[in-house]
Automatic annotation (TrEMBL), chain B:
One annotated GO molecular function: ATP hydrolysis activity
Signal peptide: none
CDD domains named in the record: ABC_NrtD_SsuB_transporters
UniProt-recorded name of the protein: Nitrate/sulfonate/bicarbonate ABC transporter ATP-binding protein
InterPro entries reported for this sequence: AAA+_ATPase, ABC_transporter-like_ATP-bd, ABC_transporter-like_CS, ABC_transporter_ATP-bind, P-loop_NTPase
Keyword Transport found: yes
Length: 259, 256
């Protein structure tokens, strides 16, 4: 990164921080003039305190760990199976005409609609919620992989063949690296579907996790808990979307010269 | 390496009918020869190279060749995810050659192509001419007996192209490879080839062969090159006119 780039980044960061401080100020002012009653609209300080307390007494940490575990199992499965099916969809015509049609149909179903079915099949337990996470992201992973494979420039395959790739080498050294940029974008999108499905699932049926912490806040009429948990959920979203996937995406795109 | 192409024909399936790409093409190339295939675009030149390279199979006819074949495309087709040095070493890596050996060979071919300073660069950081040189290094490193080049310089600016003509003739003289070079540029063909094969419009047939007995290295602006180019141009023009007429006809049909 050049000096100018760093400077520009620094400037952007400062603008963002100032804007956030400004929002906090407005929040605090609204609280101060009692625009809404305090139990509906807590001060930034209260929410911050709840946040610290949640981490100090480990309830938030457990909530995060439980939710993350579900997310990793569910999305991990969707990632593996979805990518594999997507690859087949791109390569085998008859599978495309049958399974492809099914995937497109099922993709239109909002993932939370799978919950009643999951509850009946698996009961009120971990399996049901993981099932919802899987169904929420597997179609999108499948479709992302299919289009990534279909869009590989044939020239790369031919060049690979002329340079003597054989069997698996074609997949490992040509096809996989060729789809990587669109595949990472697909993972990023699939992850956000999985994350949304998980949160809706956790809020609808009582079981530990961040979604439930949110609902507990509501039941206890504890607005600062609701807001604190929302902040945690936002932070996790930002960490994955912007930091982990964003950095992966950028580094690949820079290598390719797509930026 | 000797190459014999005997009565090759190839058709492609279009929407409703078949398009003849090549019709009864025969070609005999001696070891160490530099052949240029010249023809209007769409006459089946790339198809012929793909058939010789074994990327596609002919409908009729036979191709005899022994030895390794390298093919270079019109676009450099470098892998954008690999550094220049890894692109050049790609073929050796696929053959599981030991790493130090690969590094040594890569160095050699990069310096031959004046690309040593760009070993660590990614393809998108190279100019068009540098990309083609990297692609040539990537092909030559596998030491092919027959080098097929499909309009490799067509997308480059005139200056870069002229420099590459010089480089290519030098490499050819040093390595004694057999080269088949496809182009639609008459002067380019005369400047490079021992023989120039002029193709008809689609379906491609060899219309006429010209032997070019000029001393090397040749330059694009040599008087002799210009003279012979003129002669060949007469031959080629008929075919280009045919393509133009076909296109006009096609447009008219669309407008009707
Ligand atoms: N894979 C293919 N499928 C259908 N038609 C093709 C295919 N490859 C080439 N053709 C057709 O065959 C003809 C010859 O193509 P090509 O060999 O690329 O010509 P050239 O390289 O001389 O410009 C063209 O009309 C082209 O449209
Ligand atoms: Mg062509």
């Amino acid at each position: 990164m050049t000096k100018v780039d760093l400077k520009r980044k620094g400037r952007k960061l400062i603008i963002k921080i100032i804007f956030l401080l400004f929002l906090l100020l407005i929040w605090w002012l609204l609280y101060k003039i009692h625009f809404w009653p305090a139990w509906l609209f807590p001060s930034p300080r209260q929410v911050f305190k709840t946040l610290i307390k949640g981490f100090a007494n480990h309830t938030f940490i457990w909530g995060i760990l439980i939710s993350m575990r579900r997310l990793f199992i569910g999305f991990g499965f969707a990632l593996l199976v979805g990518s594999f099916v997507g690859f087949l969809l791109a390569k085998v015509k008859i599978i495309n005409e049958t399974v492809g049609f099914l995937v497109l149909g099922l993709q239109t179903l909002p993932s939370i609609c799978w919950l009643p079915l999951a509850l009946l099949w698996f009961g009120l337990n971990e399996k049901a919620i993981i099932f919802v996470v899987i169904m929420g992201s597997i179609m999108s992973m499948t479709i992302a992989m299919e289009s990534a494979v279909k869009n590989i420039p044939p020239l790369f395959i031919r060049a690979g063949k002329m340079l003597g790739v054989q069997g698996w080498q074609l997949f490992c050294h040509v096809i996989f690296p060729a789809i990587l940029p669109s595949f990472i974008t697909g993972i990023k999108q699939g992850w956000s579907f999985a994350w949304r499905s998980l949160m809706s699932g956790e809020m609808l049926f009582i079981t530990l996790g961040l979604g439930q912490l949110l609902m507990i806040g509501r039941q206890l009429n504890d607005m600062s808990q609701v807001m604190a948990v929302m902040l945690v959920i936002i932070m996790i979203g930002i960490i994955f979307d912007k930091l982990i996937f964003g950095v992966m995406e950028n580094s690949v795109r820079r290598k390719w010269g797509l930026k | 390496m000797r190459l014999q192409v005997k009565n090759i024909s190839k058709k492609f399936k279009a929407k409703s009918n078949y398009v003849g790409a090549l019709d009864q093409v025969s070609l005999d190339v001696k070891s160490g020869e530099f052949i240029c295939l010249l023809g209007p675009s769409g006459c089946g030149k790339s198809t012929l190279l793909n058939l010789i390279a074994g990327l596609e199979a002919p409908d009729q006819g036979e191709i005899y060749s022994r030895g390794k074949i390298g093919l270079m495309f019109q676009e450099a087709a470098l892998f954008p995810w690999l550094k220049v040095k890894d692109n050049v070493g790609f073929g050796l890596k696929m053959q599981k050659v030991h790493r130090p050996e690969i590094a040594e060979q890569v160095d050699k071919y990069l310096s031959m192509m004046h690309l040593s300073a760009f070993a660590e660069a990614y393809p998108h950081e190279l100019s068009g001419g540098m990309k083609q040189r990297a692609a040539l290094a990537r092909t030559l490193i596998l030491n092919p007996d027959l080098l097929l080049m499909d309009e490799p310089f067509a997308a480059l600016d005139a200056q870069t192209r002229e420099r590459l003509y010089g480089d290519l003739q030098k490499i050819w003289q040093e390595t004694k490879k057999t080269i088949i070079f496809v182009t639609h540029n008459v002067r380019e063909a005369v400047c490079l080839g021992d023989r120039v094969e002029v193709f008809t419009a689609r379906p491609g047939k060899i219309k006429k062969e010209f032997k070019i007995n000029l001393s090397r290295p040749r330059n694009l602006n040599d008087v002799a090159v210009a003279q012979i180019s003129n002669e060949i141009m007469q031959e080629l023009k008929e075919e280009i006119d045919k393509v133009a007429a076909e296109m006009a006809d096609y447009k008219k049909h669309q407008n009707d």
